[in-house]
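This is your field. Have a critical look at the following sequence-structure pair:

***
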Amino acid sequence: MDSNPSTAETIYVSDAVTTTAKILVVGHFAVGKTTYIGSLSEIAPLRTEEKMTQASAHVDDLKGAPDKVTTTVALDFGRLTLSEELVLYLFGTPGQQRFMQLWEDMARGALGALLLVDPSRLAETFPVIDLVEKYGLEYAIAVNTFDAKAEFDEDEIREALDLLPDTPVVYCDARDQTSSARALIALVQHLLTRAA
C-alpha cells in the first residue's frame, strides 16, 4: 500500500483484475476524509481541495477545526488493490451541506460507506447518516481519534448516534495507514456479512 507510486505498474490496474468495488468515505466537514483516503491510496490521490475564502466564513463552521485552510469542493479519489483480482476505489464526499447534491451521483453503484466521525462534534454526523440511509448504503462508523482529548467509548458513540446493534464502530487515526486499513477491513467484513 505505497502511497507514493514509483513505477508505471503501480499507476495502472493490472489486467488480472476481474472485480472492482466502489466505497464511499463520508462524514461531516473537517472530519478527515481527505487525509483518510491519502493514508490508504496506492496511487497519488485525486484531491479537489481549494483554499477557504472569506466568502465561506459565515457558512463553514471552523469551531472544531480552527486551523483548516482548504476544503474539498467535489470529491477525493484513491485506489487500493486488495488482491490480484480485486481493487477498491475510494471516493471521498465533500462534507458541507451546499455540496450534498453530489451525493446522488457518488452513491450510485457504491458497495457501502465508511462514515468518519469526530467524537467532539457528534451532532454534525446526523445529516450524513441520514444521507447514507437515504441512498440505502450499508455503513460502518470510524471514530477518527486525531484529537486524543475527545474520548468516548463504543457504547457512548452507539447511543449518541442511535446506531443499530450490528453497525460496526471502530476507532482509527485517519493519518495512519495501518489504523485506516483496520477501519476499512471492518466495513468490508460488515458488507460481506450483510451479503451472506
Observations:
- The beta strands are 19-26, 46-51, 70-81, 86-92, 110-117, 139-144, 169-172.
- The longest strand covers residues 70-81.
- Confidence is low (pLDDT under 50) at residues 1-8.
- Residues 177-195 form the longest helix (19 residues).
